Amino acid sequence: MSDEPRLLEAGTHLVVDTAWRRLQHYQGDSLAATYPVAVGKPSTPTPLGHYQVIYKMLNPGGVLGTRWLGLNIPNGNYGIHGTNSPALIGQAVSNGCIRMHNHHVEELFPRVDPGTPVLIVAGGTVQVNTEGSGSYTVVAGDTLWLIARRFNVPLSALVNANHLADPDNLQPGQVLIIPR
């Protein structure tokens, strides 16, 4: 959880979930907006990890749509951008970039500056029981703090419900109870 305070202190930050194909825009600890996105196809997946917006471009055109937010992902030219194929939003079809509807990226663009943190994760599976609580399977890139925010439950409730001796040590495949 060492990166979590950095995200909170940064003010604006973005969380892209490649499995759920959505981008969440946070202002401090408040969720400002959620957008559907297209992500990398299996042969060219969107790289998971902690990155930053490094530059912005108006009207790059073509497959990039009306806005481009370049990311500092090594070994490639990756970004968050619009699209000329809006029907593909919600699918895994890109070469690794994150595609948004043009009107969504136009809404987000003025709210994001170079240096904005971007966390890219691949969400786990969620199961809900009859009492309304559920379970969540941890995937690479997850932190307890992000899971708490995703399900809108207090961090302490997750720790207590799962009897976590070391909440900083989550393992992919680990199943957590999500309390109601």
TrEMBL record:
Domain LysM residues, every copy: 134-178
Active site positions, chain numbering: H81 (proton donor/acceptor), C97 (nucleophile)
Keywords: Cell shape, Cell wall biogenesis/degradation, Glycosyltransferase, Hydrolase, Peptidoglycan synthesis, Transferase
GO cellular component labels: extracellular region
Xref: PROSITE patterns: LD_TPASE, LYSM
GO biological process: cell wall organization; peptidoglycan-protein cross-linking; regulation of cell shape
Pathway recorded for this protein: Cell wall biogenesis; peptidoglycan biosynthesis
Sequence ranges assigned to domain L,D-TPase catalytic in this UniProt record: 12-121
Pfam families in the record: LysM, YkuD
Protein's UniProt keywords contain Glycosyltransferase: yes
Superkingdom of this protein's organism: Bacteria
Listed InterPro entries: LD-transpeptidase, LD_TPept_cat_dom, LysM, LysM_dom_sf, Transpep_catalytic_dom
GO MF entries: glycosyltransferase activity; peptidoglycan L,D-transpeptidase activity
Family per similarity comment: Belongs to the YkuD family.
Protein name: Uncharacterized protein
Organism expressing this protein natively: Desulfotomaculum copahuensis
